[in-house]
Amino acid sequence: MTSIRPTGLSPHLFVLGTDRAVEFYREAFGAVEVFRNTLPNGVILFVELQVGAGRLLVSEETPELGALAPPTVGGSPVMILLEVDDPDAVARNAIDAGAEVLMPVQEMFWGERYGVLRDPFGHRWSVTTAREQLTPDEIVRNTGY
């Protein structure tokens, strides 16, 4: 068996309104545009963003390629986890930029401060930071089950 050694993982989001999405991710999460690939006819193929230590690709929905945005398919089954130093501040930025709160940031039984947002393009984001490292037994005890 060949050894697999990934060198990175970058979510690729499809949206309706690439430029608006890039602006939202900049305002909400501090994203910085690294590269933009635009076709000769002006269509944006993708925009690569730096978000913290990670990369995020954003492209316009392209149905003929099977690249569909959440509104087209009735939502997204995927959640993007964004680890930050201050999830409350990041959630406020995202809300101010147009995100919807699905679950307010709060202390969780697994030892993190955690909340869930939906961006204006239908993608779900959890913002979190570890507060304490709990063992699996401690997490189960904290659930009350």
From TrEMBL:
Cross-referenced InterPro entries: Glyas_Bleomycin-R_OHBP_Dase (IPR029068), Glyas_Fos-R_dOase_dom (IPR004360), VOC_core (IPR037523)
Domain of life from the UniProt record: Bacteria
Residue ranges annotated for the VOC domain, each copy included: 7-130
One Pfam family it belongs to: Glyoxalase
PANTHER family from the UniProt entry: BNAUNNG04460D PROTEIN-RELATED, VOC DOMAIN-CONTAINING PROTEIN
Protein name, UniProt field: Putative glyoxalase superfamily protein PhnB
